[in-house]
Design a protein that fits this description.
By secondary structure, the chain is an all-alpha fold. Helix content is about 70%, strand content about 0%. It contains 34 helices and no strands.
């Protein structure tokens, strides 16, 4: 009987393949000039590890800049990702969002290009076409937008890059004929995995992928063969022959196993062998008491992850807080779980088939890349701090793309190949367009947060972020409404209470703000920010003793809290306790040497107390850390002017004006200096400039009249 020939997908030459992959990977270029958005602020903009922290401390802190040993740390240990951010900061001497976006886009292109030799290795020579079409789909998949267009997604990009490199090293260790090359390559493989792990924890899963590749592709062992081998009772001679025959394989697997143990133990030792703690709102399913319902919800989330890879129509920057309602009783969504497991079971049965087929081997590799890198985010080994995060699907989606193309190739045996290729081209084009549009939404927080309303209108965190963005833009009416909406959807949202309290505090509605802060603290006792804000409100209400207690409580929960120390100093100043005020501000500047308000308050208070020399010394010390601050130059000029040192005072006034040419006080005071210096023309010019900025400025008007009177009497 004649065997039916298996139809292969259209072969694309390697140079053309690489060019197409490179061009397709540019589908996210729309975000190249985007801003720092969402988690970028916490991980980069407000993270001192990116700017000033000693390098050694970066290896002791989590991804967000907190000590790994802190009880509220998320335990996400990605020092090499942070160092990549820091390198860019050092090169440019500042945080320029466009640079970070361009690097992310370039990294995605590199990951896609390196995938070509990696998949050619993993799938063998028979899978060359599968490799190209899989990477083409991977390059444009919209599920990657968060990882590429969100700067914090660099952790996924770097992790993927070094995972692919580890596979290349592992393959070379298998193929190398000289023992030195074999061992050097194996060391390169383990080093790459360790580096990937220091970029993101998922990197350790490369060990399992290397092992499966060795067994299934290199040694041609299918799952059916492995089960037979394990269950069969070998004689001593057969066992000896097997070990001799597979000696190199067993050594490689042993090295992988030992390396895995060492890396896991090292990772857990860094975090003090303590699991991270999360709040209920972060991952509600993991807090369900009923184990059956908890597992049911986990499985539904797996379904959603799979659906987003199949049909990435609804994408959201955050899937928590009501975006995915919990299954608590009979729910029609359970049907999707059954369908998911039926399809998955069918696939498992297929790969455990006893007959030899290259497609089975390719399917195993696809499943391995799909499932294994997803395990750290699956809640199986430990609870994670999110419901669903699109960026965690960056590497697993490569496995999905392989399985999709395998299915497409099988389809070519049933329908004309040109139809299948047309469908694939159409899908790739649609994905490219979707990624292009979605990456544009990631350019600003306003567009990103608003896009989420269409996907998760019941997500309190979406409304919270819209409110926060509106408050930053000065739209307090919208911010007030959105914070109230967030609290309506989630009445126990402590962060929303704190921010709403801040809005009310700024509107001098102190009693309402006090109520909100106290409620936030009831919900989250160690909420240091709420304690500090409560202290500010209590101080405004003249409840000084309660205010001091609130500040000290905030400091007990957060040792390094310069803003709290600054406000504590303001409280002592109001009570005329000048020594304690100065000590509080000194502590604030020790914790954060760029805390300009603390420096300025110290300078002003020392000057008011008649300690002019100490005030000047403090001011010059401040300039070492905030050299470009106009206010500090202005205060130095005022002190020098009062001391009669007109030349140096003029110099600092001009520095202040060059840094901030819109402040009328700088011109007014420089005019006073010239007036006293008897440089009347220059004084007149400065008064006029001050009045140009603020025509109703009475001090400048009065001084100008006095100047004209003086000129007329001369």
């Amino acid at each position: 009987m004649l065997l039916k020939r298996r139809i292969e997908l259209f072969d694309v030459p390697t140079p053309v393949s690489l060019l197409i992959i490179m061009l397709l990977s540019l589908c996210y270029i729309n975000s190249y000039n985007g801003e720092f958005v969402f988690d970028d602020s916490e991980a980069i903009v407000n993270n001192e590890d990116v700017k000033t922290t000693p390098i050694k401390d970066v290896f002791m802190n989590d991804f967000w800049g907190s000590k790994l040993t802190h009880k509220n740390s998320h335990k996400s240990y990605r020092p090499l990702t942070i160092l990549s951010f820091r390198l860019q900061f050092w090169i440019r001497q500042g945080l320029i969002a466009q640079d970070y976006h361009i690097v992310n886009i370039a990294l995605h292109m590199i990951v896609c290009m390196i995938m070509f030799p990696v998949l050619n290795i993993l799938l063998g020579s028979e899978g060359k076409n599968v490799a190209f079409y899989s990477i083409a789909l991977f390059a444009v998949h919209p599920i990657h937008t968060e990882a590429v267009s969100g700067i914090v997604g660099r952790a996924e990009l770097l992790c993927a890059l070094f995972m692919w490199l580890s596979i290349l090293f592992y393959n070379y260790s298998i193929k190398a004929k000289k023992i030195l090359y074999r061992w050097c390559s194996m060391c390169g493989c383990i080093t790459s995995i360790a580096i990937a792990m220091l970029c993101k924890e998922t990197g350790i899963t490369a060990i399992a992928i290397c092992g499966i590749y060795d067994l299934v592709i290199v040694n041609k062992m299918l799952p059916f063969n492995m089960i037979t081998c394990i269950t069969r009772k070998f004689s001593y001679k057969e066992m000896k022959n097997f070990i001799e025959l597979k000696q190199k394989l067993l050594i490689r697997l042993f090295i992988l196993f030992v390396s895995c143990l060492v890396l896991i133990v090292s990772r857990f030792s860094i975090m003090g062998f303590k699991a991270p703690t999360f709040q209920t709102v972060d991952n509600p399913a993991s807090f369900m008491d009923n184990m059956f319902l908890r597992l049911l919800n986990y499985n539904y989330i797996y379904c959603l992850n799979m659906w987003l890879m199949i049909c990435p129509q609804w994408l959201c920057f955050d899937w928590s807080m009501g975006c995915i309602p919990l299954i608590t009783t009979y729910d029609k969504r359970i049907i999707f779980i059954f369908i998911f497991w039926l399809v998955f079971a069918k696939l498992i049965v297929y790969i455990f088939s006893y007959y030899e087929d290259i497609i089975i081997r390719h399917s195993i590799i696809g499943l391995a890349i799909l499932i294994i890198p997803f395990l750290p985010a699956s809640n199986i080994f430990f609870n994670v701090g999110f419901v669903l995060a699109e960026r965690t699907l960056y590497i697993p989606s490569a496995g999905y793309c392989i399985l999709f193309v395998i299915g497409l190739q099988k389809l070519c045996n049933r329908v004309p190949m040109q139809y299948a290729l047309l469908a694939f081209t159409l899908l790739t084009s649609v994905f490219f367009a979707k990624s292009w549009i979605r990456s544009n939404e990631w350019k600003t927080e306003t567009s990103l947060f608003r896009s989420a309303l269409y996907v998760c209108p019941l997500n309190a965190k979406v409304h919270y972020n819209i409110a926060k963005n509106a408050a930053d833009a000065g739209n307090f009416t919208l911010a007030l409404y959105e914070y109230q909406e967030a609290l309506r959807l989630n009445p126990n949202y402590a962060q929303a209470m704190n921010n709403l309290g801040n809005l009310l505090k700024d509107q001098r509605k102190y009693s309402e703000a006090e109520t909100l802060f106290k409620r936030a603290i009831e919900l989250q006792e160690d909420f240091a920010t709420a304690w500090m804000n409560l202290g500010i409100v209590l101080s405004a209400l003249k409840k000084y003793n309660e205010s001091e207690k609130s500040y000290l409580t905030a400091l007990s929960y957060r040792n390094k809290y310069p803003d709290c120390l600054y406000n504590l100093g303001v409280l002592y100043l109001e009570q005329k306790d000048y020594d304690r005020a100065l000590k509080a501000w000194e502590s604030a500047t020790r914790q954060k040497n760029t805390h300009r308000r603390a420096w300025i308050n110290m300078i002003l208070l020392l000057d008011d107390l008649g300690m002019r020399e100490k005030a000047l010394k403090t001011a010059y010390q401040a300039l070492e850390f905030v050299a470009n601050d106009a206010s500090i130059h202005f205060n130095i000029a005022n002190i020098l002017g009062k001391a009669g040192n007109f030349v140096h005072a003029e110099k600092h006034f001009k520095h202040a004006i060059s840094k901030d040419p819109t402040d009328f006080m700088y011109y007014t005071n420089l005019g006073v200096l010239y007036h006293r210096w008897n440089k009347l023309d220059e004084a007149e010019q400065m008064y006029k400039k001050a009045l140009d900025i603020k025509p109703e400025l009475h001090s400048a008007q009065d001084n100008l009249r006095k100047l004209y009177s003086l000129k007329s009497s001369m």
